[in-house]
């Protein structure tokens, strides 16, 4: 009797499983059909994988330590042992010229920088930092923005007024100016705010700075979306059932704005990574001897005429990753809301 | 029959651009335990707003509402929470009243979770039971609203409303968004549930045919006011207010061959006046075929007559 009933239920569940896949699963299926998004995702995966394997490359393939200078080192090029750094004879005659790309993965594939460090190994390690900072600051930014945007849009009134003015103030600053100001102050002293302690020079510092300056960019559209939800009948229904504000925000509002947050995530990761690179390029992001794509571009700048590969390689990495993230983000947006207008306007 | 809900002089104004819209104007009503009170009127006459006032989904501008003898007019949302299980609302639009991102089972479970019905297993059992009760397949528990038809969605809304064994259900045009063939099914469901669970309904509609089918008593609204309240039979047999008469004459009738004369169609002239700029005296006088000079100046109160309550200086029937 029970088994018969069970069997009937499983059969029913099996029938139901097909058409009743939730909105997330349907979006994933749509995303899989989007060729450019899949290619972008595959490319990203490749980049991430390469960066994750940075220690393997540095330790087993190139056998160098990319974080210590190697001024007296040598490399083997065309069977000949040559110094990594040669006294410069060109240009203004100042400083040194490191060896260029050897195209030999075992020894300075992309050449050395002006401290004799392997550029390829630094590129991979730098990618780790760039990606890590980009992703974690995007997560932090979206988390803060979701809370603030939902609260502002849901309650409206003075709460909204206060939060919106805060967004305006942050938004009013040029992004880089604000980031540089924060960095200059925080990088020397570290951040000590109540229970939060971040040491000067920690990687978490650029993460927090970049996350904070972009909060309004995500929170504003979310706030608008929540305000539009405010008059929906299912929110009235929830009030009629006796749900508290917190419960309504969590269980009714949040599931409806979460797709937007998910769309923002890859786009913000790209934007934050670019910001990180820019800050590091300006020496107010990742601090030496740590590397990021931004610091490598900066390192390469002094050698731009003699060894352009350094700057080009790092710039290409940043560019490709940003493009891939944006294509993926567009795909995610299309998948989550097939009716959405293509980007533009906003 | 005891009084379950009592509304006294309920007024609800909305402010729009400096003007006050008198959505509900001095409405007094009684809903008795176990009955169905139909509320009819043209769209925009304040029926839905009245419904929301009755269950305190919105604040009243003035007047009072008593539920089970308790004055709920000024209770905060938090203070209303313990009363919510007893008074529930079914919404007009079954598309808008369900969260598109939550499954049907989840929607029906929500009131149970809010009011601490029991552990997850108890909630699941109760939701399955409710699905049976409203005629939904248990296999559809995990489906999302977009996968249901309008009628099925309204059943989900009904299941959600009756989940906590309410005393009073205010149904705000629950079938007007549905196909006619589905309307009958949902109306029958309302009737079955009333019998089974001893529910009291306030049934809001603009379709007199629908209201007649379900109501014990009927309140007719015009421009935010109740103009006539009577037993359904009396109202249909002999309307007392000229507006009710005009409304009834607009209901299409089937010639059953019995030779009973059809109602003469009364076509009202003019539009419904704006609720911002209400007419003086009786609010119906600009359109009333039987208006007298007195109607222009003096607002008729809702008076008790032999068979009903009517707000007219010159009622058509005593």
From TrEMBL, chain A:
Cellular component aspect of the GO annotation: plasma membrane
Membrane topology: Multi-pass membrane protein
Annotated spans, Disordered: 1-21
The protein's name in its UniProt record: Peptide/nickel transport system permease protein
Transmembrane segments: 36-58, 131-157, 169-188, 200-219, 253-274, 309-328
Bias-annotated ranges (Low complexity): 10-21
UniProt superkingdom: Bacteria
Pfam families: BPD_transp_1 (PF00528), OppC_N (PF12911)
Subcellular location: Cell membrane
GO BP term, example: transmembrane transport
Family: Belongs to the binding-protein-dependent transport system permease family.
CDD domains membership: TM_PBP2 (cd06261)
Keywords noted in UniProt: Cell membrane, Membrane, Transmembrane, Transmembrane helix, Transport
Organism: Nonomuraea pusilla
ABC transmembrane type-1 domain span: 127-329
UniProtKB/TrEMBL annotation, chain B:
Gene Ontology terms for molecular function: ATP binding; ATP hydrolysis activity
Pfam family, one: oligo_HPY
CDD domains (UniProt xref): ABC_NikE_OppD_transporters
Key word DNA repair present: no
Keyword field: ATP-binding, Nucleotide-binding, Transport
Domain of life of the source: Bacteria
Domain ABC transporter: start-end pairs: 5-248
Keyword Transport: yes
PROSITE patterns in UniProt: ABC_TRANSPORTER_1, ABC_TRANSPORTER_2
GO BP: peptide transport; transmembrane transport
Family the entry assigns: Belongs to the ABC transporter superfamily.
Protein name: Peptide/nickel transport system ATP-binding protein
Species per Swiss-Prot/TrEMBL record: Nonomuraea pusilla
């Amino acid at each position: 009797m029970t088994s018969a009933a069970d069997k009937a239920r499983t059969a029913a569940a099996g029938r139901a499983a097909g058409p009743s896949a939730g909105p997330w699963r349907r979006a994933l299926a749509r995303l899989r059909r989007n060729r450019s998004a899949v290619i972008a995702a595959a490319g990203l995966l490749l980049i991430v994988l390469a960066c994750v394997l940075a220690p393997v490359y540095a330790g087993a393939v190139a056998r160098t330590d990319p974080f210590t200078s190697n001024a007296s080192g040598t490399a083997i090029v065309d069977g000949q042992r040559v110094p990594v750094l040669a006294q410069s004879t060109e240009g203004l005659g100042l400083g040194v010229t490191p060896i260029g790309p050897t195209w030999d993965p075992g020894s300075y594939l992309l050449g050395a920088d002006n401290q004799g460090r392997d550029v390829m190994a630094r590129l991979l390690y730098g990618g780790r930092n760039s990606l890590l900072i980009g992703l974690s600051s995007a997560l932090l930014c979206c988390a803060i923005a979701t809370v603030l945007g939902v609260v502002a849009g849901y309650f409206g009134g003075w709460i909204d007024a206060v939060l919106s003015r805060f967004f305006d103030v942050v938004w009013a600053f040029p992004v880089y100016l604000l980031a540089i100001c924060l960095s200059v102050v925080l990088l020397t002293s570290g951040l000590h705010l109540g229970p939060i302690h971040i040491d000067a020079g920690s990687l978490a510092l650029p993460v927090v700075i970049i996350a904070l300056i972009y909060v309004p960019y995500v929170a504003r559209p979310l706030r608008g979306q929540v305000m539009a939800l405010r008059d929906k009948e299912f929110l009235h229904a929830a009030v009629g059932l006796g749900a508290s504000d917190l419960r309504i925000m969590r269980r009714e509002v949040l599931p409806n704005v979460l797709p937007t947050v998910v769309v923002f995530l890859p786009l913000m990761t790209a934007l934050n990574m670019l910001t990180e690179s820019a800050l590091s390029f300006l020496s107010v992001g990742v601090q030496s001897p740590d590397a990021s794509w931004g610091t490598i571009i900066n390192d390469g700048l002094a050698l731009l005429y003699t060894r352009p590969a350094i700057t080009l390689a790092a710039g290409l990495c940043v560019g490709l990753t940003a493009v891939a993230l944006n294509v993926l983000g567009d795909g995610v947006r299309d998948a989550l809301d097939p009716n959405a207008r293509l980007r533009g306007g906003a | 029959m005891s009084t379950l809900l009592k509304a006294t002089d309920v007024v609800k104004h909305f402010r729009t651009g400096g003007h006050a819209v008198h959505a509900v104007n001095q409405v007094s009503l009684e809903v008795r335990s176990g009955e169905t009170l139909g509320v009819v009127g043209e769209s925009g006459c304040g029926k839905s707003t009245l419904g929301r006032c009755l269950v305190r989904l919105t604040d009243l501008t003035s007047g009072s509402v008593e539920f089970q003898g308790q004055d709920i007019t000024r209770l905060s949302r938090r203070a209303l929470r313990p009363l919510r299980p007893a008074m529930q609302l079914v919404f007009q639009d079954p598309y808008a009243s369900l969260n598109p991102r939550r499954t049907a089972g989840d929607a029906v479970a929500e009131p149970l979770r809010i009011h601490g019905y029991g552990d997850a297993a108890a909630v699941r059992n109760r939701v399955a039971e409710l699905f049976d009760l409203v005629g939904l397949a248990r296999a559809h528990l995990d489906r999302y609203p977009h996968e249901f038809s309008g009628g099925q969605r309204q059943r989900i809304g009904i299941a959600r409303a009756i989940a906590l064994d309410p005393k009073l259900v205010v149904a705000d045009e629950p079938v007007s968004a549905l196909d006619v063939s589905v309307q009958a099914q949902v109306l029958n469901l309302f009737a079955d549930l009333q019998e089974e669970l001893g529910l009291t309904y306030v049934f809001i509609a603009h379709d007199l045919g629908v209201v007649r089918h379900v109501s014990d008593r009927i309140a007719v609204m015009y421009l935010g006011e109740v103009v006539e309240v009577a037993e359904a039979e009396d109202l249909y047999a002999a309307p007392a207010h000229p507006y009710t008469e005009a409304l009834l004459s607009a209901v299409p009738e089937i010639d059953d061959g019995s030779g009973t004369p059809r109602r003469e169609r009364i076509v009202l002239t003019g539009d419904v006046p704006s609720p911002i700029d209400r007419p003086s005296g009786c609010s119906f006088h600009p359109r009333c075929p039987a208006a007298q000079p007195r109607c222009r100046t003096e607002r008729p109160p809702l008076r008790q007559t032999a068979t009903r309550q009517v707000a007219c200086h010159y009622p058509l029937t005593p």
